[in-house]
Amino acid sequence: MHYWTNELWRLTWLVGGAGLLGWVAGEAGWGLALGLSLFVFLHLRQLRRLYVWLTRHPHQEPPTASGVWGDLFDRLYRYQKSQRNTQQRLRDIIRRVQDSSEAMRDSVVMLDRRGDLEWWNSAAEQMLGLQAAHDRGQHITNLLRSPRFIDYFNARDYREPLTLPSPIRDDLILQFQITLYGDNERLLMARDITRLHRLEQMRRDFVANVSHELRTPLTVLAGYLETYGEHAGQLPPRWQRGITRMQEQTTRMQNLVTDLLLLSRLETDHQAEQAEPVTIEPLLESIRRDAETLSGGSHVLRLEIEEERRLSGIEQEIRSAVSNLVFNAVRYTAPGSTITLGWRPWQGGAALEVVDDGEGIDPVHIPRLTERFYRVDKGRSAATGGTGLGLAIVKHVLLRHDARLEIESSPGQGALFRCAFPASRLVQAAAEPPRETNVTPITAASLRRR
Questions:
Q1: Within 129-172, where are the H helices?
Q2: How many helices (H) and strands (E) does the chain have?
Q3: Dist CA 115 CA 44 (whole Å)
Q4: Domains of the chain
């Protein structure tokens, strides 16, 4: 307000003085016009000085002036200096971020909201073959053209990383992880996991080779034990008990080797067999009969079909996955429990479900159930003869069929194991004559004890 008051006084003195002089000369109007013109001229002169300073010498000291123009020059200069300091701090931060990214052994690539390349570190040039002279502004999928990467990038579901060979070196195995930030921008990171990949491959080969080598001696041992068992009546009672125990443990070892070989094949055979439409109802009915035989009639096994479409996949692998779930339900639920096998629509696709009303599982164990040899109750699992590989096999079968395993359970409320398949895996069944079915939908109530 102080500067504006001074300007008003200056205007008053100029106009008043010029008007007084004009009045003395007998031209008061011309005197007032002259005073206003002089006031405007002074302001235009200061405005020109401001324009010249901002456009030609912005980094120099501002022009000297008095009144409101002096205050304006000072404020603009302080604001300009503050902005330069802020920009310098931001440049320093960006430089430190870039320097730290350059020091990383992992590739770091910044993408804009469209997926175009904005910046990357030197590790990305070595691992991904990016070149600053040609690739800046290119879309990432123009350079990483693997169909698996394109599907991963477009799906926008980046909770799990993607493992692929480097686009410039087949012997370099990379793990890609994308993070969304800002205005739908993406940060792509790629790690060299070649050593871990080789160690994992060595572990798989070791397990597969050992399992293959164990099959022959176990087969020989089982054959001789079976022969001795046929003549058990001629042996002392103490030897009979020993042979029975050896037969049980040999059978358990054979089951373990079989599961290890199956799991090894699922992990290493990335080229899946040709998928064919599988009619689920007869498949589940066959598994239900096998489960009845395993339970010896001590469980109630039900079949519920709500989905008419067929499933595109490998029937033997799907049978193995569902059988593991059903046989686990038979082994780990008390006699008299009800086990339901279902095929129903689910979230746009369809789901195979195995529901029991047994003791249930503490939720703390659920995230680890698909790990190899993980057991909720080690003593009870050993007593039932399980190998600890069933759910790991289920997980890998579902991965090969673009599906996922969902587990819902709590103590005393039973358990639900759901194999959820996407709509792309469903095939419309051929037209058949209508038939009557008595279907009871699976609900949350089926998880509770009856």
A1: 132-135, 140-143, 147-155
A2: 13, 13
A3: 50
A4: 2-94 (no CATH), 104-192 (3.30.450.20), 199-268 (1.10.287.130), 276-447 (3.30.565.10)
| Tokens 């008419």, residue located | 308
Q: How many residues does the chain have?
A: 450
Phi, psi of 243 (to 5 degrees): -65, -40
Adjacency order of strands within the sheet including 338-346: 300-305, 338-346, 349-356, 415-421, 404-409
Q: Are strands 300-305 and 338-346 parallel, antiparallel or unpaired?
A: parallel
The answer to whether residues 272 and 400 touch, using CB atoms and an 8 Å cutoff, is yes
C-alpha span between 11 and 6 (Å, rounded): 9
The alpha carbon dihedral of 71, 77, 82, 87 has a sign of: positive
How many Cα neighbours within 13 Å face the side chain of 341? 29
Which tens digits make up the pLDDT trace of 35-83?
667 667 777 777 777 777 777 777 777 777 766 677 777 777 778 788 7
Closest CA to 416 of 349, 347, 369: 369
CA distance 39 to 41: 5
Assign 433 to helix, strand or coil: coil
Chain centroid to CA 310: how far? 28
Q: How far is CA 370 from the centre of its chain?
A: 17
- 209-250 pLDDT, tens digit per residue, is 777 788 788 888 888 788 877 777 777 777 777 888 888 888
C-alpha distances out from residue 47 to 3, 41, 44, 54, 168, Å: 16, 10, 5, 11, 60
- Is the full-model pTM beyond 0.70? no
Give the CA count within 13 Å in the CB-facing half-sphere of 322: 31
369 to 330, 385, 391, 409: CA distances (angstroms): 17, 17, 7, 12
Q: Which two tokens stand for residue 118?
A: 């904005």
Residue type, 252: R
Neighbour-count burial of 79, counting CB atoms closer than 10 A to its CB (0-12 exposed, 13-18 middle, 19+ buried): exposed
- Helix (H), strand (E) at residue 324: helix 315-331
* Per-residue pLDDT at 22: 64
Measured at the CA of 203, the angle between CA 209 and CA 220, to 5 degrees, comes to 25
Q: How far apart are CA 332 and CA 361, in angstroms?
A: 10
CA atoms within 13 A on the CB side of 70: 9
In the block, which residue shows the tokens 């895996």?
Answer: 425
